[in-house]
Amino acid sequence: MENIEKNAPVMPLMEQKAAGEREGLPIAVMDSGVGGLCVLREIRRQLPREELLYFGDSANAPYGERSKEELCPLILSHAERLLTEAKALVLACNTATALVAEELRARHPDVPIIGMEPALKPAVSVKEDPRVLVLATEVTLREGKFAALLKKYAKVAHVVPICAPGIVRMVEEGAQSSPRMRSYLQELLAPHLSKGVDAVVLGCSHFPFAKGAISHTVGGDIPIFDGVEGTARQLNRRLGAAGLLNPSPTRGAVRLTSSLPRMLPHYARLLFGDGY
């Protein structure tokens, strides 16, 4: 798709169907660009029978550098459009989750709407009083949801938030393993590494694509956590509880869409590999 639908219907398709007709509807997964593809890949692994619809808003990426006033109506418009044909929605974007997840859940209480947040819980458990670096975007770090997480773990860990917008841009460009990425990470993280690091949390869905470069920078023995696997598990639980798991015996199809159609080959390479 190339244009934002300004007047997308508010009533999701699954709310218009009888319970027995919903299981075969797709799960919609959305992100500001390519980042959510790592979540989509894990959903395919855990829920191979499900039909999947992916939307990446690459024309407006990165979300993490835009204002809340600009982002909220944009993200809500995309979400409402996707919900006209999906039985569930995964906000595979920490920024989108922080800004609109609660509003979408209030609008659609009968639809599983799954968000993401930085995986601090397992990171702070690596040792007693660990020093944990959280890499994220500006919007994610400044929203109340992250502030609540910081407060929750303040007594058991020293958490260091680090704004890393350059990772998003380079992943969108396909430069996640480039010398430019490694140079950027070295400059960004050097002041923090000198003080010691016990764990790293990837607080943006784009960042797992750069996990190799991040591990090279911080040291291969430092554990790195993201919310990808947990997000897919939560989706699985919610669909099961709602009786919405697809009973089909065959593998579900994947449909990739973008606000910047020229990015679709890049999406396919990240999801399926070069042999797609």
Beta-strand percentage range: 5-15%
Distance between the termini: 21 Å
Look at the structure and give the mean pLDDT. 91
Largest sheet: number of strands, sense, barrel closure: 5 strands, parallel
Q: How many β-strands, per DSSP? A: 9
Tally of DSSP helical segments: 12
Rg over CA atoms, rounded to whole Å, is 18 Å
Using the alpha-carbon principal axes, give the shape: globular
Would you identify the regions where 5 or more consecutive residues have pLDDT less than 50?
A: 1-14
Question: How do the strands of the widest beta sheet line up side by side?
Answer: 4-3-1-2-9
List the secondary-structure elements in sequence, H or E.
HEHEHEHEHEHHEHHEHEHEH
Helix vs. strand class: alpha/beta
Helix proportion range: 40-55%
Offer a quick outline of the entry.
Helix content is 42%, strand content 14%. With 276 residues, it is α/β, with parallel strands linked by helices.
State the main characteristics.
about 40% helix; alpha/beta; 4-stranded parallel sheet; about 280 residues; 9 strands; 5-stranded parallel sheet; 12 helices; disordered N terminus
Give the topology.
Elements: H1 13-16, E1 27-31, H2 37-46, E2 52-56, H3 68-83, E3 88-91, H4 94-107, E4 113-114, H5 120-123, E5 131-136, H6 138-142, H7 144-153, E6 158-163, H8 165-172, H9 179-193, E7 199-202, H10 211-218, E8 224-225, H11 228-241, E9 254-258, H12 264-272
Parallel strand pairs: 1-2, 1-3, 2-9, 3-4, 5-6, 5-7, 7-8
Helix pairs in contact: 2-11, 2-12, 3-4, 9-10
